[in-house]
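Lab meeting minutes (informal)
Scribe: AK
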Amino acid sequence: MEKYYKKWFKPLLLPAVILFVGVIIIPFIIGVFYSFSAWRGTYFHGGANAFESFVGLRNYAKVFQNSQFLDALIYTLKFTLMAVIAVSVAGLVMAMMISILRKGSGVYRTIFFMPNLLGGLALGFIWQFIFQIVYSKMLFGEEGLLHIPFLTNMTQDSTKTLVALVIMVVWQMAGYMMLIFVAGINNISSDLYEAASIDGAGAFTKFRKITLPMLMPSFTIVLFLTLSNCFKLLDQNVALTDGNFNTRLLALQILRTTKDTRPPDYGLAQAQAVIFFILIAIVGLIQVSYTKKKEVEM
């Protein structure tokens, strides 16, 4: 069997490599090059091709002079920080609850994971209805069960929308992250907890000294997935607010750049996309490098 895999591994891998190069690598390289040109989507301003319309770093200079991009960057950083903490904590708490259950844990796992199966647009429209109708009129409005003004009209204020986006992504992602934490908890030897009990350690001490250190490999995966997904959030932002009331995240800002400029400046949008990629790559690499150092040998 091993000889069979060695013989057919490269031929079977080749179609996937060709597809990856053709769909991902080559368009990415072309996009980076176009970010240095006056690309207008259907033509190149000032020349017949990208070489003749080459503008150097002008597009990148415009990016950092664009107040909308800077506002979207700050808004995205705030949202990502809040969402990463909230999703990680919620996923860990749910995983701890599931690990305690002896019966019906599979049913709860399925229920908690199901929101992750919804598409971004569908999820955004569902929560738009919840925030506008259920929250604003039925629960927390003037005639609702509890009058809490902050929880009303949450899609019409940038601060409230920040909280609304966090609530939405926690509901969507926490179940997926829970499964990763559950797998990590199941790999922790019960002997460690028994030894800690003999030494007189309480539940909190076991959690802090055993569970958290042994779950660092799971934290590495969870933090990376949450960071990357929150930075790239687009569909939910479109469906929930469409970027109105200064609620654009970076992905939506890049998408709307071609509508904000006349004629549509695709070169500027592509420069924003390259900066976006570099930002995600740097943050992701720093996070993975840091959490890897904290991991404990199983």
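Next up, CB showed the second protein from the same session:
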Amino acid sequence: MSAPLVIRAGASTDRGLRRESNEDALVVTAAMCAVADGMGGHEAGEVASALCVRTLGASPLFQLEDFRSFEVLEPEPPRDIARFRAVVERELRLDPEIPDDAIEAVRRVRSVLWQADQHIQHAVEGRAGTTVTGVWLLRIDGRMLWVVFNTGDSRTYRLVSPQPGGRAGEGEGGPRIEQLTVDHSEVQYLVSIGQLTASQALVHPRRNVITRALGTGQVWEPDVWVLPARHGDRLMLCSDGLTNELSPAHMARVLASVPHPKEAADVLLQAALRTGGRDNVTVIVADAVRPGEYAPGF
């Protein structure tokens, strides 16, 4: 049985050097954090991202001791709900550390994101939307788990566990990060079918065209993953204003070498500004710690 864990997080956000306003938004609690990147013009984009994180932050789901008591408000189900459920259950059960009840946690996260999608649609009438990526740290059947979700191209990464004899996050050749989410974008689709390489995708003229977003009235469905959570885990959530400026190797070095999450987030943001700051930049560094182990970093 895993000991209880909470999130100790630090965050930074900036409009960047070329944007008139900041359409990014973020939320951090002891059990959940998320980054949203609005789009659709500075006023509407700001509304969309703010509504997204406000809905997540206000949801009782992330505050309940027993998530099963949260009432699921079902979005429009997939065309084949039985097949959808079977696929999710099969994916979760590939890992023997993931309890069966995790499927219910996935349903509830999906429900909250659907509520955010509806709030944004009603507020901006399809004139804007937002990406979102987030993590929820919860306990099911005595096991601590990360529920990771995303819609769009904001990303969540994990600092890779240390190799025997190495420092935190170090593998062969130095620190390394693992991307936990998969972008919902045109170039990612082309990479997945073999028409583009990852290197070509970085400079493709349509690299910023996303295929899913909340609030647009079109495709909103998130991808959701459930992963074992362990004491000392370090995750990073960010908008594409960070990943478009910094290499994975640079981000990994900072995450592995700066112990305090707020300081790590600040260092990453300043590095993104120094290398161009062409977009809004938002980053959250989230550590899994025991309750009372540290004061909140945010």
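CB comment: Residues 4-69+79-165+172-287 form a domain with the Phosphatase 2c; domain 1 fold (CATH 3.60.40.10).
No objections, moving on.
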